[in-house]
Amino acid sequence: MSVARNINIEELIKAETALELQLINEPEFRKGLIWGTPRFGHPEGTIVLHINEVLNNIDKLPIDEHQRAILRLVAISHDTFKNKEDRNTPRNWNLHHSILARDFMAKYSTDPVLLQTIEYHDEPFYCWLHVHKGEHELAERRLNRLLNNITDFQLLYYFFVCDTLTGDKILAPLLWLEEKLELESYRPYFL
Q: Which of 108, 136, 143, 182 is the most buried (most CB within 10 A)?
């Protein structure tokens, strides 16, 4: 996949903390931010343009500043290592972009909520994908594993909402998760 040029990362992310600024100035991180071309789910193309959309959604959430700071870090890092993801078949899930991002962020933070939210940010989608394929038992096991491994499910859910409501992503995984876990009362007002 090609890499976009002439993108103003600083203008799109508008770093609010010293850590955010440090991250967007790391050469490896910057390379991931400008990677990508338009594709299904991400018509915006580059990762940083997607992150900008997620950050705009986070700004609409009814959350406190601490939660917002965590979600901003998740947003800034969650897809940044897609350029390094192993997409061979069979897949090496240890080289999935979420694991790469979690491992990178572990150099900067030990906050389990931050690291878990980064690692599991796509997990609700994968659970739904099993349902979509008729693999209901596998979906159930995967969802139960997620619920047992995540410290702050509501924060993960909020991130999943903000991530899903970007580009041209389908809403079916989000709606399935909400129905399955009876989350309608948690739904942010902008959905």
A: 143
